[in-house]
Structure formats: structure tokens, C-alpha cells
Amino acid sequence: MARRNSESSEGIRPRPNVAPLPLAARIALHWAPRRPRRRGILAFLGPGLITGASDDDPSGIATYSQAGAQFGYGMVWVMLFSYPLMAAIQEISARIGRVTGHGIAGNIRAHYSPTLLRTMVLLLLTANILNLGADLGAMGEALKLIIGGPARLYVVVFAVGCAWLEIASRYEDYVAILKWTTLSLFAYAATVMVVDVPWAEVAYRIVVPSFSWDKDYIVAIVAVLGTTISPYLFFWQSSQEVEDQREKAGAEPLLLAPEQAPREMHRIRLDTYAGMGFSNLIALFIIITTAATLHVHGVTNIETSAQAAEALRPIAGEFTFAVFALGIIGTGMLAIPVLAGSAAYAVGEALGWPIGLARRPLEARAFYGTIAVATLIGIGINFVDIDPITALFWCAVLNGVIAVPLMVVMMVMTMNRKVMGQFTLPQPLWCMGWLATFAMAASVGIMFATW
Q: Domain range for residue 281?
């Protein structure tokens, strides 16, 4: 009582009772613009980091696991080879979005044939939904391995959770969630550190390729390249650059604000090369882990990422098994929204809808509806009798079919001054982009030749 009196005598009034805000006011406050936060390294890295990390999805983990189990350390050089190609084509994707203020589909719609646009978007949508369904199935199987129970129920829970976060979250909060989710990939750094790896041999195999003309070896290389260079990554990163530009105070497309170019091009390059480096490093860890465990013990046939985790249990122990399985779930939580989101961006830009995760759901009903429908079909894939290996195979085929012509269009687009103005590609990036395109075309040709 004495303390209360002394506080009153100093002019401090007791806090009044405040009635809770009504629902409408709370929703408005949730979506209201916020004061910019202090930018650290995690804030500086954005679309490139998220795009690179999402490339190591459960389907990709299955591909890398099979490569390591079947060929041991004979495939590790592919990750070093693919890194500059992957980074270059993703930097080109990012430049398209940041320079023009529109994603890839929007620029194709504005400058190229409607038939080309519809074909690209339809193939992308089909591949993304198949990939999404396969990833959801792998996540459900991984959780079943850890705690038991019905895998299909987990598929529904994961799908609904991912879609709800993507639709209901504020853009800046959702981007932060995706960035923190990338940390789940460190699970594979942990697994490679607890298994017995001949690091001297690995280092030698990384820089000195051991190429073989064996049909299975060539198909494995094609599968790895098709996993690291995927069309949904192009659409996602270009569209995220557009989103970030619209949300950043004072930012404009570089065509309208060329003075912003030096800083933004430097950021894009650092973000992209860091994100793709992180992606390929994790993929390398997965190949090394399965090579040092499964291949050494004669396990050479891995069909799904969950099967890879299960095979590790008797060989590498409970810890490695559990961390590997949890990594599948973590990477899936990142990949599912990217797959659904990139499909929605492509369809929305092709049809001229209001698009963007920064928009409120009522402002972009069709865009968010596409995310929900794609996720719902992904769930349905797991309730019909589709072999997961068949699904992954057709994902690879569709990604290959769309990747090559899409990369050609992107390379032509980024050298067209009507599209890019003064920001056409510098010579080194132009050369690396075409090299990536030719490498992907050769991979697709080999894939069909070995069908």
C-alpha cells in the first residue's frame, strides 16, 4: 500500500482496464505495415537462400541417396560441376524479376507467344503437383518411421499446415519462417560427421571425375542434374525478387530506377551463390553419407528418401537414422510451399491475376486458390495407387522437357533490350548461362536415349 501511494505521489497512474480489440481490428493490425527491422546477414540473404534450400526436397534426397548408394563416391564430382551452372541460371532468373518488376511468366506473356506461355505453364503445373505429392508422401513415411502411425494422416497434416502458413501469414513473417526452415538441412551435415568417411578419397573424387559410360551411371548423372536445375526454382526466385522489391521501401524495378542497380546486383549475386552453394553442399553430404554406409554394406537400390533413412538404421545407428528422417520432414516443409507457390505465380502471371504472398487473401483469391488446389491434388496423389518411383520418374521427364526450352527463352529474353533495357547479361554470365542450357539439353537427350 505504501508503495502504491508513493507511485501515485510521483505521478504514475495505475494502468486502466483495456477492452480487447474486436476481430476486425486485430486482422487489420496483423496486416498493417511494420517498421523496418534491423538487417543482419539472414535478412540480407533471401530468395537465393530459400530457393537453393528448397532444391534439396525429399524427392531430391531420394535421388542423391540413390547416387551415393549405387555408385559410392563416384558421383561426388557432379555436385562441384553443377554448382556454377545452377548458380548462373538462378542469378539470371533473379535478374529478370528485379530488373523488370515481373516474373518469368509475366515477361513471356508480354513479349512472346501465348502458345509458348500456356505450354510452359501447363508443364510446370503438372510437374510441380506430381513433385509436391511425392514430397508429401516422403514426409508422411518419414514421420511414420520415427513415431509410427498412419502415414496418410501425416500427409494431410503436413499439407494443411504448409498451405495454411503460406496463405495466412504476413509476407515478412512467412519469409522469416522459410529462412529459419533452411536450417533443417544441417541435419545432413550432422549425419555425415558421425559416419566413417575416407575424406582424402572424397576430396580426390570431387576434383578428379571418374566418368563411366555405363547406362545406369549416365542416368544417375541426368537425374542429379535434373534435380539441381529445376524449372520451379526459376519461377520462384524471379517472383520472389519481384515480391521483395514491392515490399521494400523506395525500391523500384531497375528499369525505372537504374541507380539502384549496383547494390541490388551485388545482393542478388551474393544471395544466389550462397544459396546454391548451400544447396549443393547439403546434396554432397547426402551422397557421401549414403556412400559411406549403404554402398559400403552392399545396399545399392534406394527408391525413396524414407527408404534411405530406414536403410541407415541398422548400418549407421539410431541417431543417424533419426536425424536423416527428421531432415526429410524439415526440407519438405520448405519445398512444399515453394512448389505450390511457384505454380501459383506462373499461372497467375499467365492469366493476369493479382498475385503475391504479400497480398491479403481476399485481394488475390485466385492466386491463393491455386496454392490450395495444388496442395489438395498433392494430397490426393497419396491416396491413389501411384508408385512413388513412377511419380519421381515422370517428374524428372517433365522437368527436363520444360527446362531446356525455358532456359533458351530466358537466355534470349535477358539479351533483349526491349525486356532488360541496359541490364542485359554481362559476357561471363551469358557464357555460363548458355553452358548450363547446353548441359541440360544434353542431359535430356541422354535421358530419352536411355529410356
A: 44-449
